[in-house]
Structures are given as structure tokens and as C-alpha cells.
Design a protein that fits this description.
alpha/beta, 4-stranded mixed beta sheet, 12% strand
Length: 194
């Protein structure tokens, strides 16, 4: 009799865990990939969007690195979950190289994420992306200059990923100057915000 009660409690607990995943799993749609810049939040003016598109096209042609930008007003899930789903849906990066990068900005939520394909994770580490977020993108966002922050951010990401000596030196020296502690990027995003 005691064995049956124990099994019943275990089954009930297992059911609640599985049911919780079903009830809490949020389905959300991903915007269509219409270009290298998808500005759903309308924070990038037309001229700058064209400049970013042209720049990212030349980066892809010259290095094979595929970078895309998505701005939205708000997201229904964590920025990490959202960025991963967009990255996977858009299939960024070259087949077999997984060398894509996605910059997601949720303006009203004040969240930002750089999602990096496995092929670039050794170069664009969480630490390097954190430095780029804090030193390049966020200062412009705080001034309301989303377009400039995004453009400077993708230039720095592309330069660092492709081994541009000047960009690498700048990001690496910022890492040394700051004494960037070994915290995961998500903790920095929580502390820094934009």
C-alpha cells in the first residue's frame, strides 16, 4: 500500500512538471526576414538602414560572415529565448560554418542580445560581446541614438569577427582596461541595462 502511494506521488509530481511545460510554453511568431535589417520598432531612419544593409552585404561578400539586425518593440519571452528562435528560424550563417550573428533589440523592454553561431563563438565570446554592448552600443542607446548604436555595434562585431587589427586591438584593450570579470553575459545585461 505504501509503495502505491509513493508511486502515485511521483506520478503526480511528474505530471505537474510536464503539464507546467505545456502551459508555460509560449508560442510566438518570428518576424519575416526581409533583409539584413528588420526594423519592426522603427528606430532606424531609412538612410541609415540602407547604409547598414550595404555594409552588412559587403561584410558577407568579403568574409562570409552573415550579420542580421532585428528591432522590435517588445518580446513575449526572455531575450535569450527570443534571439535563439529568431536565429534558428532565419538560418543565419553559412551552411557547415554556422558563422552568423544576430543583434536583437527590444526597445520598450530595454533588452539587447547578440546571438552568435557556433562557428564564431570562439572569436565573439560572451566577454567580447559584453564589451561591444557596453562600450559601443549602449552609450548610443542611452542618448536615444538607436541607429548609430546599432551601426557602430555591427561594424565592431564584423571587424572583430573578421580579424580587423584595429578593431581587435580596441576591444581587447577595453577588456584589459575594464578588468572585465568572468560573469556570464546575461548577468552583465541585467546590471548594465540600456
Amino acid at each position: 500500500m505504501k509503495n502505491w502511494r509513493k508511486k502515485r506521488h511521483i506520478l503526480a509530481a511528474l505530471f505537474l512538471i510536464l503539464a507546467g511545460d505545456v502551459f508555460y510554453a509560449q508560442d510566438f511568431s518570428v518576424p519575416r526576414l526581409t533583409g539584413r535589417v528588420v526594423d519592426e520598432a522603427k528606430v532606424i531612419n531609412g538612410k541609415t538602414e540602407d547604409e547598414i544593409e550595404s555594409y552588412l552585404k559587403s561584410v558577407e561578400e568579403n568574409s562570409g560572415i552573415q550579420i542580421a539586425v532585428l528591432t522590435v518593440n517588445s518580446i513575449p519571452v526572455s531575450i535569450e529565448e527570443y534571439a535563439v528562435k529568431v536565429f534558428e528560424t532565419w538560418k543565419l550563417g553559412q551552411a557547415g560554418k554556422d558563422n552568423g550573428v544576430l543583434v536583437v533589440v527590444a526597445v520598450k523592454d530595454r533588452k539587447l542580445r547578440i546571438e552568435v553561431g557556433y562557428g564564431l563563438e570562439g572569436v565573439l565570446t560572451d566577454t567580447k560581446c559584453g564589451i561591444i554592448i557596453r562600450n559601443v552600443i549602449t552609450p548610443q542607446f542611452k542618448e536615444g541614438n538607436y541607429a548609430e548604436g546599432i551601426f557602430n555595434g555591427v561594424k565592431t562585431l564584423a571587424g572583430y569577427a573578421s580579424g580587423d587589427e584595429k578593431t581587435v586591438k580596441k576591444v581587447d584593450s577595453a577588456e584589459k582596461d575594464e578588468g572585465f570579470p568572468p560573469l556570464p553575459l546575461i548577468l552583465w545585461l541585467i546590471f548594465v541595462g540600456f
